[in-house]
Target: Pseudaminic acid synthase
Amino acid sequence: MTHHEIAVGDRLIGPGHEPFVIAEMSGNHGGDLERALDIVRAAGEAGAHALKIQTYTADTITLDVDTPAFRLSADHPLWPNRRLHELYEEAHTPWEWHEPIFALASELGMVPFSAAFDPTAVDFLVGLGVPMLKSASSEITDLPLVRAIAGTGLPTIISTGTATLAEIDAAVRTARATGNEDLVVLACTASYPAPPEASNLRGIPVLRDGLDVAVGLSDHTLGIGASVAAVALGACVIEKHITLSRADGAVDSDFSLEPDEFASLVSETKIAWQALGEARIGPKSAEREGLRFRRSLFVTRDVRAGEKVGPDNVRSVRPADGLPPADVDIVFGRTFTQDVPAGTPLSWDLV
Model:
């Protein structure tokens, strides 16, 4: 393996493997464990390779303070003027739910993991035996937290919404300084939902080549188009929110995929990866039959020896058994050396 190929459970992440698609539950459980488990089932049925949640409490991620700094903007498209503490209290996944959620995800063949938002979450998740951890976008400048996450030795995903290249580089260097090379950096636009024109997917190969890491996309746009395009630009991990229904009013449902859409995400990103092929031009093995039906020169009617070869008895048609069409100017005006029935491919021994 190289550092671009990362083992997570029985799966390999890297350019040589189909995209690793992560279903992000976030707060779409709506505070109901049974709904959370239904989302896990839906993700499994949709073909997700991993099921991700978020590990924090309102008190570990912010303060219970009501000042303008601790409120979202009044013009926020989803959560206008909401107090941070109140929003995170609604959206968080209770820690006692983690074990049943992870157990069901594992049973359904998915990799269960979470984003850790403080050192107590790191310890808690390691205690649950998760095979992978994530550092969220807003935590990328919290280098002590990045160090704690990567320092577990587990494969580590670093999301990069809002970050400059210098900040991303600092986080990657911090993670690598722990000796952990199993890193995936996700391009991300931390806007909910994210407009497609703000996705800047051309930055994906910049991250891959500049940081020498496996790369992916944490996609908050509507639909699956951005994710499919990201695969064409080198993304080997796709993370997308999933909900049972966007109409249910959960905190992240407006920019989440419903189960049938998530199934399309899995299948279409795989097709995009398969379609990349190799950096070469030429006939493909799948075109063998097509090669047989290129055009060539054929005798179009019965002719007698001694007749002149011309447009009334030789023409470029399919299939490709005769002389190439480019030879028409060479053969026209010559004579047939023998009787030739219609439908015979023209060859040099006939003229």
